[in-house]
Amino acid sequence: MSINFKELANKYQTPYYVYDFDHITAQYNELKGAFKARKSLVAYAVKANSNLSVIKHLASLGAGADCVSIGEVKRALKVGIAPYKIIFSGVGKIDSEIKEALELGILMINVESDAELQRVEAIAKELDVVARISIRVNPNIDPKTHPYISTGLHENKFGVDIDTAKRMYIQCKNSENLDPQGIHCHIGSQLTELEPIKESVKIVADLVRNLKAIKIELSFMDIGGGLGIVYDDEKLIDTNEYAQSVLETMFGLDITIICEPGRFLVGNCGTFVTKVLYEKVNGNKRFVIVDGAMNDLIRPSLYNAYHKIEVLNDNKEFSDCNLVGPVCESGDFFAKNIDLPKTEHNDLIAIYSAGAYGFTMASNYNTRGKVAEIAVENGVDRLIRKRETFEDLIALEEEFLK
Ligand SMILES: Cc1ncc(COP(=O)(O)O)c(C=O)c1O
Ligand SMILES: N[C@@H](CCCC[NH3+])C(=O)O
């Protein structure tokens, strides 16, 4: 369905994020459908887009939640995701988060180190409960993605190596307060090659079989997220092939599959819309300056990521420019050396594939309020997060005047 960016700009001003909820539904159904041969749970990685309406929409389709802080766990619970569909990962959980997660009775705490396992056990003992856990395995596989978003190599901080994981499962067996329910592996994000995923799932499935042989029987195998989306002209992993290859690896195992995609479910469903303020030329260099900035969408500045850009005017006179925002950083750009048509004040520009890691990575740098978020479903638009005002930005500050 096409979204009328101009109408939304008139109604809500710019910049804004808009999310196509019908597209989110289609993405969810495609993935869930691919795993239909097995018991499965699609646990949405809340970090990709934490807006309550987005999570609630996915919850209404049946999704669970993959969370990386107790705040994300609470977001998931707030919109009605059942505790038994929530997983809590992260390399640095603090004691109070572990305690709350245990009290809330979520499906599993996904443990990422030996030391964390000791803390979970101690806290479970204090509370006199049994902690359901999974262990995140770091299989040392190169996911072939941007180095900043690789998570499955030993040089990355995530998870534990396979031998440590095995030792930790044995420790669980001997503990009254630890119940190993699952195993987890997530090797990176924006993956466009199936082979590394296959390899890592195979390593994990082999460990599940080894554990079974010593009477440690797991109920869940969490294969992580990571499925890539289109930013430019990427060739994507076929979801059916993905699911099929995972299912083949699990031959003979009676285990529920969990996958935890973020970007795949929401990335291509979101657009960041900004408007032109000025054009100028410094020497030979043309700049198009817009009202959105790196604080609203940081991926180009942070990863040199490319997002497809469309100027919504009919001008056919294209020339090279940098598309930049008002923030006081030379790194504040959406694209460098890109051919764009000549623009006028107030022309709109759509920056696509911005539904994941867009708003959630936004900041208030330069005392800029976070932009509005809008959902469109069945042709109807709704404001799902108001634009922040100056008052919102200073609300938590104390003024110590001399
Ligand atoms: C443990 C875990 N699960 C799921 C995800 C979601 O990743 P993606 O948005 O690439 O699907 C991430 C982020 O990379 C993650 O760290
Ligand atoms: N924030 C990253 C992805 C990190 C995924 C979370 N582990 C991005 O914008 O692509």
Automatic annotation (TrEMBL):
It is an enzyme of class 4 (lyase). It holds the Pfam family Orn_DAP_Arg_deC. This is Diaminopimelate decarboxylase. It catalyses: meso-2,6-diaminopimelate + H(+) = L-lysine + CO2. Residues 17-355 form the Orn/DAP/Arg decarboxylase 2 C-terminal domain. The active site is at 328 (proton donor). Keywords: Amino-acid biosynthesis, Decarboxylase, Lyase, Lysine biosynthesis, Pyridoxal phosphate. Pathway: Amino-acid biosynthesis; L-lysine biosynthesis via DAP pathway; L-lysine from DL-2,6-diaminopimelate: step 1/1. The keyword Metal-binding does not apply. Specifically catalyzes the decarboxylation of meso-diaminopimelate (meso-DAP) to L-lysine. One of its GO terms (molecular function) is pyridoxal phosphate binding. The gene is lysA. Residues 22-266 form the Orn/DAP/Arg decarboxylase 2 N-terminal domain. Homodimer. Belongs to the Orn/Lys/Arg decarboxylase class-II family. LysA subfamily. Substrate binds at residues 263, 299, 303, 329, 357. One of its GO terms (biological process) is lysine biosynthetic process via diaminopimelate. It comes from the Bacteria. CDD domains: PLPDE_III_DapDC (cd06828). Pyridoxal 5'-phosphate binds at residues 226, 260-263, 357. InterPro entries: Ala_racemase/Decarboxylase_C (IPR009006), DAP_deCOOHase_LysA (IPR002986), De-COase2_C (IPR022643), De-COase2_CS (IPR022657), De-COase2_N (IPR022644), De-COase2_pyr-phos_BS (IPR022653), Orn/DAP/Arg_de-COase (IPR000183), PLP-binding_barrel (IPR029066). Transmembrane segments: none annotated. It comes from Malaciobacter pacificus. The modification N6-(pyridoxal phosphate)lysine is found at residue 47. The keyword Cytoplasm does not apply.
